[in-house]
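Worked Example 4.2. Read the sequence first, then its structure tokens.
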Amino acid sequence: MPAGRRILIAGIGTHWGTELALRLERDPDVEQVLGIDTTPLLARLLPSTGADTLVHTGILWYPEPGKPQRALHDINVIGTLQLLAACERTPSLQRVVLRGSAAIYGCEPTGPSFFTESMASDYPLRTRFQRDIGELEGYFANFARRHSGLTCCMLRHQPEIGPGLDAPLSRYLSLPVVPTQLGFDPRLQLLHAEDATGALLAAAMNPIRGAVNVAPSGSISLSRALRLIDRPQLPIPHPLFGPAMARLGDRLGAGSLYGDAVRLLRYGRGVDNARLRTELGYEPRFDAVAAVRDFAAADRGLRLVPVPGVGSVLDRLAGSR
């Protein structure tokens, strides 16, 4: 790898932007790491940075303080359009990497065990977040076709867990009693946070063209994951599970995106990570089971003594977080 790399991180204030910056700072092949967290400023400043690589980590999966759920479309879709417009005016740029989401594949009862990158258009986009991801991926694909001299890479991350990672899925798995859907035991791929950052680093330093699934090898059932984490289940009939998650959505930090979680926790989703391992050259440290084991080892959530009635349990769960 040639010396003197100048890498700009859009969304430096996010967890993933900060973690990537820390990794890049330790890399002797990187001359300078630049960061910016406001897309309009990026549009004005990017051409003057001399950056050869742009990594966009600012696509949000959930609401954050100061970034409510009603703003997610503008942040994710309009923000990406503004970023790509800035890229067009930056002659030094050689590589563009976006941290996207494997939600593009959806969660379908008839879906394959492991989606490959070519299957993104095989199933409908059923939720608002899926449609947003599909829209921004469409813009990015058009940009890549118009600028064939740039290496453009879209990373499709599976949901992440890990010690110290404060995210809705981690909060869900750490509930004293975990609501599940009666009669369903989905197969999941929960990506360890260390591997999520490791894949970002690999793509920043040696990106490939096109979409790349970022996921651990293998999968794990939700029931086995909860046994490893030592959390009891509260099976709820499917028609009641959506309202239950809606009640917990704000407490977990998922907001209106609880609908995506309902489908994930009913049907599951697996993606094939062959391109990640063989073409991008990143081998995940944690497989699907090991990622949950590591999360379980660090988890210190409180247990709740069971009480009768679904509603009373959910009320106590919501009040305990």
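Now turn to a second chain, presented in exactly the same format:
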Amino acid sequence: MAKTKRGKGLLGLPSRGRGTCPVCLSTRIKVLYTVTNSEGKQIQVCKRCSSAPQSKIDKAITTGTIAFRRRLRKTLNELKAKQSATD
């Protein structure tokens, strides 16, 4: 397969499919996989979290307002600390 054909579908996605995973809070990662939480809401997660247990998916937070930028890093670190404290 030619390298020019790889990832062609990602070009149309916002940020080329990259963002912050709401389950593991990894930044600048491809969030292309759709999972459903217990409330029936679908969320986009990374490849590692696509096979996560339902209990972890239910604890997912909304990451629409936070990003990997420096000015929002403090907020992200606080959320990670809260999440690790509950695990």
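Notes for the reader: The chain has two helices and four strands. The helical segments are 54-58, 73-86.
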